[in-house]
């Protein structure tokens, strides 16, 4: 009989029935929200903790410290509860009551960092604070999803290989980006094993993963103020898109109403782009995206009409609205390696991150 952590991964991939028309490609959703803690982050969280246990970086009774207000902390909180580790989540004031409730349910401790960084977000100050705690607390471990290459290795070894085995006529795979774990890992595996498949990145306007001007945005889970090191090789990415808050919120609402698939806001961002690609691809081909987390996490926001109206977002859920937007959407860049790189090579050291470097042979 498997234990809880043994059932992470091997998620189903399903075909959507209603959002595309005859003559367009099929949309395929890989259901990462069926993982036990409810998101795509269960895979890298467990991959990194398993590695740390084997390497002696995390010993029995130890403490896991991570900077994350969302799914990665929740995944670590589940793992900590199952394996007997204390978990400290370093979060920012944008932590939603739902995520706070989930972290507390798993028994995780929460530390709020309320000093914004130079981009107006909290990513850098949170990471620096988590690193400081790690230096102060004995027998502690920093998974460091942002700079640890094991994040993308988890998706390289599992998510991408599963998806390629589950599809026969895949023409494109669409991934949103924050730490670059999913896009970096999936791009590497796809270009090694099925180079004809287009790899497509999605960021949100206001985030500068692919360069541009920073400004506040509402989509949770997507975006960063630099190109993450887990996405070091942008030449593996064929094209990138930027979507608006309205796109992402509208699409996750349309998805649950039109298909019955209840997923979060980043899934809406990916779906908007996947639909744009499917409308232009050859009939019978498949365009895949990840259903990254569970819709329940957004009952107070994306699935609450009052919240949407208060933030100036549409409450529309008709498929025609999503299709009209997808039809007009064009890539932000078709040459991201040449046009979009916004890497910050010295940043990990500047923020005091522990460094894990993988040899080429360790990717297999
Ligand atoms: C719901 C959701 N979607 C997408 C992402 C982005 O994935 P990645 O960090 O692998 O780039 C995250 C990351 O936290 C997330 O929580």
Automatic annotation (TrEMBL):
CDD domains: CBS_like (cd01561). InterPro entries: Cys_Synth/Cystath_Beta-Synth, TrpB-like_PALP, TrpB-like_PALP_sf. The keyword Transferase does not apply. Pfam families: PALP. Keywords: Pyridoxal phosphate. Residues 6-291 form the Tryptophan synthase beta chain-like PALP domain. Gene3D superfamilies: 3.40.50.1100. The keyword Plastid does not apply. Its cofactor is pyridoxal 5'-phosphate. This is Cysteine synthase family protein. It comes from Actinomadura graeca.
